[in-house]
Specification:
alpha/beta; D-Maltodextrin-Binding Protein, domain 2; 6-stranded mixed β-sheet; 5-stranded mixed β-sheet; 9 helices; 13 strands
Length: 268
C-alpha cells in the first residue's frame, strides 16, 4: 500500500512539474494579431529583440479591422497592433469589447491619391472620392478633404465628423464609402481616394506621390497613433510590457525611418 501511495505521489509531482513548465513556456510566448504592412513587418524586428530576452513572438496576420480586436478580447491572442485610439474606443462602444492601449508606437499619415483625376485643381463637378467607411477613419478622411479646400465641415466637429456635417461642397463631390482595405483598388473607378497609410504601403503606393498628406504638426500624430491593444487587465503583464519595450526600441525606430520614407513615423 505504501509503495502504491509513493508511486501515486511521485506521478502527481511529475504532472505538477510538467504543468509548471508548460505554464512558464506559455508566459514566454506572445501572440500578436497584426495587419501585414507595416505592422507585421515592424513586429519582425521586435521578434528578434524579444528572442534575446527569452520570449517567442508569434505574429498572426489579418487583413481587416474587426478580427484583430475580437481574438484579443476573447483571449485567443495576447495583443494586436493595427489600430489607433479613436478606432479602438469606437469599436469597444459598438461591440462591447474591452480593449485598451498598452503603448503607442507609430503614426501613419493619411494620403489623398489620384485616381481618374490627376490633381485637386482638376477635379470636375460631381467627382467621386472614396474614403474609409468606419467612423473614425472616415472622419479623418473628411478632415483631410477640408484641409485641401475640397469641402467645408461644420465648425468644431473634429474627429467625430460625418458626411452629414459637410456645410459646403462647391463641386458637389460624391463620397464613396468603403472598407479601408479596398480603397487602393478603387483608384481606377474614382477621381481621388483618401487612403490609410498602411493600406497605401501594402498596395505599393508612395506617400511622396500623394496629392496631399494629413498635417502631422497638430494633434493628429498622438490622436491617431497606432497602438498595442490588449484585453483590459493585461496591459501591465510582464510579456506585454516586454512587447511594448521591444516595439519602442531604437532598433525599431531605425527600421521605421529607413524603410518607409515618411509613410510611417515613430512617435516614441
Amino acid at each position: 500500500m505504501k509503495k502504491k501511495l509513493a508511486i501515486v505521489l511521485a506521478l502527481a509531482l511529475v504532472i505538477a512539474l510538467l504543468a509548471g513548465c508548460g505554464s512558464k513556456a506559455e508566459d514566454k510566448k506572445i501572440t500578436v494579431a497584426a495587419t501585414p504592412v507595416p505592422h507585421a513587418e515592424i513586429l519582425q524586428i521586435a521578434k528578434e529583440l524579444l528572442a534575446k530576452d527569452g520570449y517567442t513572438l508569434e505574429i498572426v496576420e489579418y487583413t481587416d479591422y474587426v478580427q484583430p480586436n475580437m481574438v484579443v478580447n476573447s483571449g485567443e491572442l495576447d495583443a494586436n497592433y493595427f489600430q489607433h485610439t479613436p478606432y479602438m474606443d469606437s469599436f469597444n462602444a459598438e461591440n462591447g469589447t474591452k480593449i485598451v492601449s498598452a503603448g503607442l508606437i507609430h503614426y501613419e499619415p493619411f494620403g489623398l491619391f489620384a485616381g481618374k483625376t490627376a490633381s485637386i485643381d482638376a477635379l470636375p463637378d460631381a467627382a467621386k472620392i472614396s474614403i474609409p467607411n468606419d467612423a473614425t477613419n472616415g472622419a479623418r478622411a473628411l478632415l483631410l478633404l477640408q484641409q485641401e479646400g475640397i469641402i467645408t465641415l461644420k465648425e468644431g466637429v473634429g474627429i467625430e465628423a460625418t458626411k452629414y456635417d459637410i456645410v459646403d461642397n462647391p463641386k458637389n463631390i460624391e463620397l464613396v464609402e468603403m472598407e479601408a482595405a479596398q480603397l487602393p483598388l478603387s483608384l481606377g473607378d474614382v477621381d481621388l481616394a483618401v487612403i490609410n497609410g498602411n493600406y497605401a504601403l501594402q498596395a505599393g503606393l508612395d506617400v511622396h506621390d500623394a496629392l496631399a498628406i494629413e498635417d502631422a504638426s497638430g494633434d493628429a500624430a498622438q490622436t491617431f497613433a497606432n497602438l498595442v491593444g490588449v484585453k483590459e487587465g493585461n496591459e501591465n503583464s510582464a510579456k506585454i510590457q516586454a512587447l511594448v519595450k521591444a516595439l519602442q526600441s531604437q532598433e525599431v525606430k531605425d527600421f521605421i525611418n529607413s524603410t518607409y520614407g515618411g509613410a510611417v513615423v515613430a512617435i516614441f
